[in-house]
Every structure is written in structure tokens, then in C-alpha cells.
């Protein structure tokens, strides 16, 4: 029994500690605002995301801290209308410290451009900030430890839509075990933000025939955001 209770206790502690670190971002920023009131008076906006990244990048809440090369926080516009959320960093992302920079990332860039946007105009992040060994799926305790960070990013960016990429990110965000094939293209709620799941770009590299479904999902997102599709006069 003791061997079974130990991991459970560590998992609970990780969740509590993650929530403390995530919520402490507000305190950190408020104190920083007081110290830099002169800068605020000149109309310069405090970069909350950069400040938050600096605060949590040394995270050691789960086992992945001991195997990562880089903490992959996320990147993009702090005012993005859409946020893409993947599963976890891969080898390329772990090496560069940036999300979606490998083959799947190149395909994601094309998906973003298919609705008339650029990577600089959206925000890209992952459920986990550190690469799992051999790119294995995230463990429940790892998701629990990292979840508060993503929630804080969503709170700061305030996107109109979160596009969950693939099974792991969708199930983690929505707290369900439903297959991604039954969830993709539908709308869900996450703390007041609309979530529209679709297949992960890595899945499309293995199953290119599924690109049709992803295109349908992107058209729905474009319509929600009132975006003009490239080469189209209107989509609605």
C-alpha cells in the first residue's frame, strides 16, 4: 500500500504546487508594475507572457525536468484570436526551445496560412512544456503538474478560440476520454473560451488522407473568426 500511496501523494503535491506557481504570476506582475510605474506612465505595456515565462522556466514539478534540454513555453502574438495547443515538445522543439519547429510544425504553419494567418499572428503552445522521453504520450501526473501553466497562458492571451491539436491535448483540455475522431470539428467550452479540436499535424504526416477533415475544421474556425480565406472572396 505504501508504494501505491507514494506516487499519488507526489502527484497531488505537484498539482498544488503548479497551481501556486501559476497563480503567483499575478502577484509577480503586480509587484513588477509597482516597481516600473514610471514606465507604465509612458504608456508601455508590461509583457506579461515574457515575465511569466521567466518566472516558471526553471520548473521542476515533474520527472521531465531532469531529462529536458529546454523548457518550451510557447510563442506568438499576445493578442492572438486563436491559440493552437499541441501535446508536448518533440526532439526539435526540445533542442530549440520553441514549439512546433519540426516536420509537424512546418505542416502546422501551412495549416495556419490556409486560413489567411501567419505564425506571428497566432499563439502556439503545448499541454506539456518539456519533452517526454522517446516522445511517449504525456503521463496523467505530468499533465496535472503542467496544466496550470497552460491555463495561465490562455488567461493572458485571451484567445477567442483554442484549437486543440490531437488526442492528448483535446482530452487533457476537456477532461474526457472520447476519441479525437468523435471530437474534432465540434465546439466545446474551456473556462469560457471556445475549443475546437482537430487532428495533430504529426497524425496528418502519417495519414495524409485526413487533411480533408482538418481543412473542414479550419474553415469552421475561419468562419467563427470572420477571416477571409486566401483566394476566396468570402466564406460565409
Descriptive overview:
This protein has one domain: Uracil-DNA Glycosylase, subunit E, CATH 3.40.470.10. The longest helix has 34 residues. The chain is globular. Helix content is 49%, strand content 9%. The N terminus is likely disordered. By secondary structure, it is α/β, with parallel strands linked by helices.
Short descriptors:
236 residues, Uracil-DNA Glycosylase, subunit E, six-stranded mixed sheet, 49% helix, globular, disordered N terminus
In short:
By secondary structure, the protein is α/β, with parallel strands linked by helices.
Topology:
Layout: H1 2-35, H2 37-41, H3 48-56, E1 75-76, E2 82-86, H4 91-96, H5 103-113, E3 123-126, H6 140-157, E4 161-164, H7 166-174, H8 180-183, E5 188-190, E6 193-195, H9 201-206, H10 211-224
Parallel strand pairs: 2-3, 2-4, 4-6
Antiparallel strand pairs: 1-3, 5-6
Helix pairs in contact: 1-3, 1-6
CATH topological fold name:
Uracil-DNA Glycosylase, subunit E
Q: Report the mean per-residue pLDDT as an integer.
A: 85
Tally of alpha and pi helices: 10
Percent in helix: 40-55%
Instruction: Provide the succession of SSEs.
Output: HHHEEHHEHEHHEEHH
Described by strand count, sense and barrel closure, the largest sheet is:
6 strands, mixed
* Content of β-strand: 5-15%
Amino acid at each position: 500500500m505504501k508504494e501505491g500511496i507514494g506516487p499519488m501523494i507526489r502527484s497531488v503535491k505537484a498539482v498544488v504546487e503548479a497551481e501556486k506557481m501559476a497563480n503567483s504570476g499575478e502577484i509577480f506582475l503586480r509587484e513588477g508594475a509597482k516597481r516600473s510605474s514610471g514606465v507604465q506612465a509612458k504608456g508601455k505595456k508590461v509583457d506579461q507572457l515574457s515575465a511569466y515565462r521567466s518566472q516558471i522556466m526553471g520548473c521542476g514539478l515533474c520527472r521531465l525536468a531532469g531529462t529536458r534540454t529546454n523548457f518550451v513555453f510557447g510563442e506568438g502574438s499576445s493578442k492572438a484570436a486563436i491559440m493552437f495547443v499541441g501535446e508536448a515538445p518533440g526532439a526539435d522543439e526540445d533542442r530549440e526551445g520553441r514549439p512546433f519547429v519540426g516536420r509537424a510544425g512546418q505542416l502546422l504553419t501551412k495549416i495556419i496560412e490556409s486560413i489567411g494567418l501567419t505564425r506571428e499572428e497566432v499563439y502556439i503552445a503545448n499541454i506539456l512544456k518539456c519533452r517526454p522521453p522517446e516522445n511517449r504520450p504525456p503521463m496523467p501526473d505530468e499533465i496535472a503538474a503542467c496544466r496550470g501553466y497552460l491555463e495561465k497562458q490562455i488567461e493572458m492571451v485571451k484567445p477567442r478560440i483554442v484549437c486543440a491539436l490531437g488526442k492528448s491535448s483535446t482530452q487533457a483540455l476537456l477532461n474526457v476520454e472520447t476519441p479525437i475522431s468523435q471530437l474534432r470539428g465540434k465546439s466545446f467550452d474551456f473556462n469560457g473560451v471556445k475549443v475546437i479540436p482537430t487532428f495533430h499535424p504529426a497524425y496528418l504526416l502519417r495519414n495524409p488522407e485526413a487533411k480533408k477533415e482538418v481543412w473542414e475544421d479550419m474553415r469552421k474556425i475561419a468562419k467563427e473568426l470572420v477571416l477571409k480565406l486566401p483566394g476566396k472572396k468570402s466564406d460565409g
